[in-house]
From TrEMBL:
<feature type="domain" description="VOC">
    <location>
        <begin position="4"/>
        <end position="114"/>
    </location>
</feature>
<dbReference type="InterPro" id="IPR041581">
    <property type="entry name" value="Glyoxalase_6"/>
</dbReference>
<dbReference type="Pfam" id="PF18029">
    <property type="entry name" value="Glyoxalase_6"/>
</dbReference>
<dbReference type="InterPro" id="IPR037523">
    <property type="entry name" value="VOC_core"/>
</dbReference>
<dbReference type="InterPro" id="IPR029068">
    <property type="entry name" value="Glyas_Bleomycin-R_OHBP_Dase"/>
</dbReference>
<protein>
    <recommendedName>
        <fullName>VOC domain-containing protein</fullName>
    </recommendedName>
</protein>
Length: 115
């Protein structure tokens, strides 16, 4: 038996707005939209993707799952994401070599230092 990782679901109050924010942040393409769902992928036929699905309640606590990204230039990428609407977040990371940010709905993600 084998499993293929297809996507990560992200519950969202406004799937289209949040999904579009992530599509622009990652440079990904939109592959599906409906009133309650907005799916993006790196390329139309490339997996895994992110699927934003409506959930009519706001985020209440620290995310139990988050995404990590490793850019070539951490400082430049953090600056770009902050200008795009991300916010710095303190989740108790202390003096770590990564930066914790949150998207417009408060979902945390990390921008790691370059190798």
């Amino acid at each position: 038996m084998t499993l293929a990782w297809e996507q990560v679901l992200v519950h969202s109050e406004d799937p289209a707005t949040l999904g579009q924010w992530w599509a622009e942040a990652l440079g990904w393409v939109v592959v599906h939209t409906s009133a309650d769902e907005f799916e993006i992928r790196p390329e139309p036929d490339r997996l895994p993707g992110l699927d934003f699905v409506r959930l009519d309640e706001s985020k209440k606590a620290k995310s139990r799952l988050h995404l990590d990204f490793r850019p070539e230039d951490q400082d430049a990428e953090v600056a770009r994401l902050l200008a795009h609407g991300a916010q710095r977040v303190d989740v108790g990371q202390g003096d770590a070599p990564w930066v914790v940010l949150a998207d417009p709905e408060g979902n945390e993600f990390c921008v790691l230092a370059a190798h």
